[in-house]
């Protein structure tokens, strides 16, 4: 290791009042006469805000969708040598807690306040008009990076953000809810909930830069985890080239191990055969290693498998290889993330600053994700759209896109089976979305700070929460939580510092009370007692039938079963004490409702309000125009064409030689649509999540000159996944069409954008993949979406007659 470089002394000056941000300019302490004669400058006036003396660098690492039993550092099967290196030189925390969902944990982490209180009761995609679910950070809750930046830190964020509402992810902003608006000087990554690792739609600072051109370079493919590490190291070197002493705060949030599980085969192949024993045996092996390491007490019990998960021995042998490969890819993906964090750590060490860098590395923003359903999925969006798939359908669809060996490549957006996630959360029950149980909210934390930690390799068992991280960083940096920011009085921090525990393994537990709530699954912790209240809904099932029992006039949360655990004696929640302590159950229920009201948790299930028809009103303007040079429109910002009739039209200029290429395309072959010209003929392709692919083409080539083309979809009814009839028009004349029996009910993609005049990144119609981005060779004057089309009575009658005739003959199958 490079010898630590001492910080140069800063110019002396009176320490400012750090409770009010931004910091006030220092008073002029020189002399200003009428001329320079006798005048004396005060050079402190031109210095930027300075951090308190001795404030450390901070590297905050957050892994996505991973469980307590995943990394080898905590007994898991995934090799994590860099995580272990930090643990052996620092501390393992085995009672650290997050929320059970992505955005809420990130909001709590970066504000040191409870997630509902800062508007993130759910993910940004499900924002609603209730205070705890707006996805809008309130001004009275200034975030950690803003506080650090205004107190003299250089700040940067890399990777996953997931804190910008859907409708604000474009060039019109507003940018106050982008990373730069939260106080980061620099951002490189993606704004949404997940991203393809091969074909991301990237943002840099306040601009969407799209998919890198080299993403499909076979010899040197783009891979986002590598690029994140490259950009982080480049930023660190740039900061140090300018200022040798200014402390930095780096937030490194990996896309791994959220779906899609994308990684090169060489990484996945390291685990060939390692999971052939199945998830039941894997849990037993992991549990034994956890107890050997001491991260799980010797007297703890391994919790049983819930009946929602199949036993491995009941999986047909012909499917076991398919399932095993899913986990091999996930493991390789995760090991690669450890590798790239290691590259950043090595760069800090080469600067001579690792000893004075506080590293906080959280392995999972929630428990491992069970959202791949029982079978796993070739496309992660099938679950979110409520599309159930059987084993047989999964096998057929996987074969369509290259077979199980293509799992992890860009041709699929895969997610492993729910039981692998359950195994990843060993020794606990359940996982992501289930805030009532430890499998959803207890994740590994490693802290590394050689300058201050007296017992490297130690273990800390105090109850800690994600809100405590920001409070601890401010504490060790000597920065108070501000009382006013931009003139706005601030909500006090909800987290408490655990800095004392860094120095003393016997330090008392400071965070003694905490509520948890995610999609109706809720818990109340107080002084060792944990009340768990889980809704009966299986987390990976979002079908109308599964959601119906939670409708506003149906669900009674007090009817949900309540389980009671005393965690000091029961590390894994193996023994329900509710029957023996009804008074404690009642006490904690009452406390939960009080906390829920205080922190804006109510109304429960606001996350699912859209499923019950509580949606934003459609805009009064029903037509949306896009010019020919608009690209990379975020998937949550496209016109709302779902579940009803709509039209897409375009004004073109077709040259004498003819034209071809994409007019407009959204997302890719795993969910999206493209209106394009192929061999001179107008063509429309619609992918219903890769499960069904529909294609309609005109009977004759386009004319030349000024041309209007139109795709008209007449839905059978305004209902989720509505089928209907497509008609293609050229200059108002019908030229082709066809039936679409199923449409996407909620969202085509979690990350792939919409482009005018081309199809960036992964393409919608694989027939033009070798011509990607297949730019239109004529001129596009504008593309217009109409989400309230008005057909003539004659056209409407004809279209619906065809639709009615075709509808009776089709059903869902692969």
Can you describe this structure?
It comes from Geodermatophilus ruber. There is one protein chain. By secondary structure, the protein is α+β, with helices and mostly antiparallel strands. It has 3 domains: 397 residues, 3-Layer(aba) Sandwich (Alkaline Phosphatase, subunit A), CATH 3.40.720; 80 residues, Arylsulfatase, C-terminal domain; 185 residues, Jelly Rolls. 21% of the residues lie in helices and 20% in strands. It has 16 helices and 30 strands. The strands form 6 sheets. The chain has a 10-stranded mixed sheet, sandwiched between helices. It has a 6-stranded antiparallel sheet with strand order 20-30-21-26-27-28. A hairpin with a 2-residue loop joins strand 16 and strand 17. Helix 2 runs parallel beside helix 12. The chain starts with 19 loop residues before the first strand and ends in a 7-residue tail after the last helix. The relative contact order is 0.13.
Rg of Cα set? 28 Å
CATH architecture of the largest domain: 3-Layer(aba) Sandwich
Largest beta-sheet details = 10 strands, mixed
User: Could you please say which CATH topology of the largest domain applies here?
Assistant: Alkaline Phosphatase, subunit A
What's the tally of helices?
16
Organism: Geodermatophilus ruber
Protein name: Arylsulfatase
InterPro entries: Alkaline_phosphatase_core_sf (IPR017850), Sulfatase (IPR050738), Sulfatase_N (IPR000917)
Family: Belongs to the sulfatase family.
